[in-house]
Amino acid sequence: YIKKKIQKRIGAMYRGSSLLPVKYRKMFANSLMLPHFDYLDTIYGQAPKTKLQELDILYKKVAKIALGVEKTESSINVYRDMKWLPLHLRRQVHLSSYIFKILNGHSPSNFIYKFNFISGGSRDGAQCNLYTPKSKNLKNFYYLGA
Fold it and tell me: What is the Rg, in whole angstroms, of the alpha carbon atoms belonging to the chain?
């Protein structure tokens, strides 16, 4: 679903790239494209790597079209010019922020009570888990913290 939405907007962005200056293409990418990549990224971040790589490719395309650079341009340079993190790091930052809010009580109360925090009292990351005790789809979400 997310991939289709992004592909439609990439097409529109590509067709309009000759009409818009770089400043406005960057604004378009930041305001209308990034929210799609950020949408539920803490959940789909657990998807298989092949699916995540498809989104990474689209993410790179958006940045390269916005800057008007060649397809072979280094992604690191493109991300720096757009002031973006690579997509996998964006997911990690969002997940860390989400976990921080849950642990410190800055999220809605219905989120706080859906997780249990267990600490073994040591600095070992395996002894510090945040997990959902019961899940409808029989999958548990684990976050190892240290």
Answer: 19
First to last CA, the chain: 35
Strands of the sheet containing 128-131, edge to edge, are 116-119, 128-131, 142-144
Beta strands in the chain (DSSP E): 116-119, 128-131, 142-144
Tokens 């305001």, residue located: 31
pLDDT in tens, 39-86: 878 778 778 889 889 999 999 999 999 999 998 999 999 999 999 999
Phi, psi of 132 (to 5 degrees): -90, 125
Partner residues linked to 119 by β-bridges: 128
- Three-class SS of residue 97? helix
What token pair was written down for 57? 């490719």
